[in-house]
Amino acid sequence: MKDFTKEIKINTSRSSGAGGQNINKVNTKVEARLNIAASQLLTDEEKLILLNKLSNKINTNGELIITSQEERTQLRNKEIAIHKLNRMISNALKIKKKRKPTKVPKASKEKRLQTKHIVSEKKENRKKPK
Fold first, then answer.
1. Are 36 and 7 in contact (CB under 8 A)?
2. How confident is the model over 26-35, as a mean pLDDT?
3. I need a surface site. Which of 28, 54, 67, 122 has the fewest CB within 10 A?
4. What CATH number did the domain enclosing 33 receive?
C-alpha cells in the first residue's frame, strides 16, 4: 500500500454535533484532500481507475475529499481521515475476480422436483372425489 501522507492537504474547521462548549472553540473537523491528477505515487492507469470508480467523491478540481468529525480531537480526526482515504484508494484499485459460471448440482434439481411433486399431490388431495 502506498503512503499518500506527503501528498494530502489537510483543512480544519469547526465540527458540528455533540461536544458541548468544545465545539464552539476548537477546529476539530478535518478535511483531507488528495489531488489525483497531480499525484506522483499513482500511475496513469491507476489515476484513470480512481477517477472512474470514485467520481462521486472527486470534485471538479480532481481532488478526492474525505472528511472526519467523529472524534473530539483534531489529531484523531486527522488519523481517521487519512486512514479512510488510504482504504478507499486501495479498495478502488483492487482487481475483482471474474465470476466463473457453475452448473446447478443434480441433487438440488432432484430436490426441487421432489418438492414440486409433494406440493402437487397435496393440492390434488384437496379436490373433491369424482
1. no
2. 88
3. 122
4. 3.30.160.20
